[in-house]
Design brief:
Layout (H helix, E strand, L loop, with lengths): L4 E6 L3 H12 L5 E7 L3 H11 L4 E2 L3 H5 L6 E4 L6 H10 L4 E4 L6 H4 L11 E4 L6 H11 L6 E10 L11 H4 L7 H17 L2 E9 L10 E8 L4 E8 L5 E8 L2 E6 L4 E5 L3 E5 L6 H12 L9 H20 L3 E2 H7 L1
Parallel strand pairs: 1-2, 1-4, 2-3, 4-5, 5-6, 7-10
Antiparallel strand pairs: 7-11, 8-9, 8-15, 9-10, 11-12, 12-13, 13-14
Helix pairs in contact: 6-8, 8-10, 10-11
Amino acid sequence: MRMKINLGVVGAGIASRELHLPALRKLSDLFTVVAVNSRTRKKAEEFAGIVGGDVRVFDSYEEMLSSDSVDAVVLAVPISLNPKMIIAARRANKPVICEKPVAASVKEAVPLLRLPGSSPVYIAENYRHIEVYEKAAELLKEGRIGIPLAFSWLKWVDFGQDNKYVQTKWRQTPEHVGGFISDGGVHDVAALRKTLGDVEEVSGFTKKSLDYLGAENCVVFNMTLENGVIGNYSVVYGAASPLNRFEIVGTDGLMLVDKDGATIEIFAADREKIFVNKTDGFIEEFRDFYNVVEGEKNSLGTVGEALLDLATIEAGLVSAVEKRVVAVDSLLEES
């Protein structure tokens, strides 16, 4: 029989309430939420009431880390706080699962690669666990559209001023690079890297058209992957209507990967539509975190993986400012 992990939740906002808690409830054989700490005690108490049962409210993160009743912590806090809170968890020898992006910038993330100690640090990138991207990667390896040549990812996000994420104060004046471009973009880069491979260099163009989004909200990133595939990632936050279209062209056909519909369409010698399980990846990432705490290898939630996601986005942002092609690895070397 597997032992349950007693979790302390840090941050009682949207991610904890609407994304993490539903997943943790479905994994009640693996986790028990026993504690919460948030910016205000009132918010923490409200979250404890939602969880139900005997949930202790801690007035400080440090107090939670020193408690023997908490086996591990989950961080869902403003991005700029991630590094110091990860470091504090490692010093306390507490396993930690932390929401992405790993840090506000590559420079702030790189030191996390060299932390002393051995307690697990897991960066929660749910897109690495979404089945449609796993299946797409598998089909590409099978050669279903021949050798991949190029990709196009068009994403329009209809975030208005009343959107709950837009209303988050720390997102309105972001300390993390590119605001929503990095906050949401690391998801797409994680999926892109899982499907097609690592990005070598980026040529970027950016535009800020809506002040309420806090930073650049329109980007076009032209990319060259390490395997020679070329492509384009374009995203607009604050668009009039949503779109999410990810296409891959190969020597023998075309693949359309639809996350929202959980389908993959292949246009080759024969046309085929493949249906996969529709998942948001949160249950899978928490299950994987449990296994890592129990001693399995961390391959999907490492700081290194999260750092490459962030570095790819930051390379595009730097390129737009400096009007040059930026190698992703060069950012890691400079940090």
